[in-house]
Structure formats: C-alpha cells, structure tokens
Amino acid sequence: MKGFMAITFPVRYRMVFTTKTTYNIMVFISMICAFNSALYFKRGCDFYFDHTIRIWTFGREPCSVWLAFYIDMVYNTGLLIIIGILDIFTLIHLKNRKKVSRRLFETLFDSYLK
C-alpha cells in the first residue's frame, strides 16, 4: 500500500504516512496477526503436523473446518486479490508515467535542437 501511494499520489503520501500514522498501521496489523494466531489456541480448533503425510493439517472438528475455510482460505485469498489489484494499478500507473516522461524528454530534446 505504501508503494502504491508513493507512486500514485506522491504529495499525499507524505501527509498520509507520517510517523504516527505508520505506527498506528503497524499496531493495527500486529493486532490482526495476534487475533489470527490466538484462534489456533482455542480448544477444538486443531491444527497439527501429520507425520504420515508430512504436512500441516486441520482437524475434523467444526471449529477446525471453520478455521481451514475462513481463516486459511478466504482470508489469504482476499489478501492475494487485494495485493494483486494494488500491484496491477501500480504497474499501470508506472507504465503511463513512463510514457509521459518519454514525451516530455522528446519535447525538451526537440526544442533544444531547434
């Protein structure tokens, strides 16, 4: 998100991402991570290493099935989609910016030669 803001809105970036705002964002993300981790310590929400197939797996209890679907799949898929969209917008903006910079360079170079 910081890269997207820095490239797309360079002037607003300095106003939005102050030291205080950055600390608040870090605290918010840390709280989400702590909540996400705490869910695995609830009784009946099993997440264990299966030595026969050598993979981490969820149990068969309803809480484990809920964790597997909502926390593991939906949450991570949502993050992937959001980050992918931000990256695509950033790349498009960089490509358009490159075209504008090239046209500006060509105009300046052309006026220099005349």
From TrEMBL:
Keywords, alphabetical: Membrane, Transmembrane, Transmembrane helix
Highest taxon above the source species: Eukaryota
Stored PANTHER family: SERPENTINE RECEPTOR, CLASS X (PTHR23017)
Keyword Membrane on entry: yes
Residues of the signal peptide: none
Residue ranges crossing the lipid bilayer per the database entry: 21-41, 74-94
Species annotation: Dictyocaulus viviparus
InterPro entries (alphabetical): 7TM_GPCR_serpentine_rcpt_Srx
Keyword Transmembrane among UniProt keywords: yes
Protein name, as recorded: 7TM GPCR serpentine receptor class x (Srx) domain-containing protein
7TM GPCR serpentine receptor class x (Srx) domain: residues covered: 4-102
